[in-house]
Each structure stands twice: as structure tokens, then as C-alpha cells.
Amino acid sequence: MGVAILDGSTVRAFVGDEAAFNRSIDERFAALDLNGDGVLSRAELRRALETFRLLETHFGVDVVTPPAELAALYNSIFDQFDLDRSGTVDRDEFRAEMRNILLAIADGLGDSPIQVVLEEDEAGSNLLQQAVDLEASKIAAASAAAPPLS
Ligand SMILES: [Ca+2]
Fold first, then answer.
1. Which residue intervals define the domain EF-hand in the entry (predicted)?
2. Residue 53's pLDDT is what?
3. Distance in Å, CA 89 to ligand 1 centroid
4. How confident is the model at residue 148 (pLDDT cuts 50, 70, 90)?
5. Cα(9) to centroid of ligand 1, in Å?
6. What is the DSSP track for the chain?
7. How far apart are CA 36 and CA 145, in angstroms?
8. Domain limits at 15?
9. Which CATH number fits the domain that encloses residue 49?
10. pLDDT above 90 coverage of the chain, percent
11. How many angstroms does the Cα of residue 139 sit away from the middle of ligand 1?
12. Higher pLDDT residue, 127 or 38?
């Protein structure tokens, strides 16, 4: 767990780095596909959303959502992922919707940096944490390549 400064460009750069983004999303997908059939069921996706804690928390602040409302939210989110209405979410659908979600988060953040508390989940791969790490590694690489401006 740590604290990071995050704005929309951090998240957008992460989504825009297709190799890093797809690797991260594919790892997440594999971890969520509990029965290994190559697609996410409604229950598997719900578990995923609970892991992300996007609905229960708003940037680290716990909010209470009534269970019936949560169930409706999870159903509508599943329908958003399941683009071809097959009843399951495949890897491409998962990548596409995760990209949309992260870009929506980026738009929400805009240019105003916020301080966020990042918690390591069991996979050690919090997506916002990865966005921060990717930016930090690029800054480190850039400052190693050129002397700092002063
Ligand atoms: Ca599955």
C-alpha cells in the first residue's frame, strides 16, 4: 500500500502503451478466469469488479451502496462488457471495456492531480498502481538518458 499522485495523463499513457496495457489486462483476465475456460462468466466478472473496488470506493473513500443497487450495477456492467451478448466475456471484450473504463477514469481525473491511496490486491497488480509505475519508469529512463533541466 502506498500513496501516489495521479492525473488523467498518467492513466491515459498507461492505456496508450498497448504492449504494457494488454500484458497487464491479459494477466488480470487469466487470474479472473477461475475455471480456465477462456471466458469470464457473470460470477467471475462480478468477483473481478469487487476486486477492483471501483464501485465500493471512490478514490479510497468507502461508500455504502445497497445490495440490490449493487446487483443491478453489476448486471449492467456485465452487459457493457458482453458486447456480442453471448452471455460470457472473452479476452477481446475484456480488453476493450477495461480500456473504456480507464479512459473514463482518465477523463474524470482530467489535469487535476489527485493523491490516491493504492492498495496491493492479491495479484499485486492494481491497474492504477501499474499506471503510476509505468510513468515513474519512463521518467526514470528519461532522466537517466538526459541531465535534468534546471
Ligand atoms: Ca471462465
1. 20-55, 69-104
2. 56
3. 8
4. low
5. 33
6. -EEEEE-HHHHHHHHH-HHHHHHHHHHHHHHH-TT-SSSB-HHHHHHHHHHHTTTTEETTEE----HHHHHHHHHHHHHHH-TT-SSSB-HHHHHHHHHHHHHHHHHHHTT--EEEEE---TTS--HHHHHHHHHHHHHHHHHHHSPPP-
7. 43
8. 2-142
9. 1.10.238.10
10. 35
11. 38
12. 38
Instruction: Classify residue 128: in a domain, yes or no.
Output: yes
Does residue 106 or residue 118 have the better pLDDT? 106
Instruction: Give the predicted TM-score (pTM) of the model.
Output: 0.72
**Residue 44: left (phi > 0), alpha (psi -120 to 50), or beta?**
alpha
pLDDT of residue 83: 92
The rounded Å distance from CA 113 to ligand 1 centre is 37
| pLDDT number for residue 69 | 82
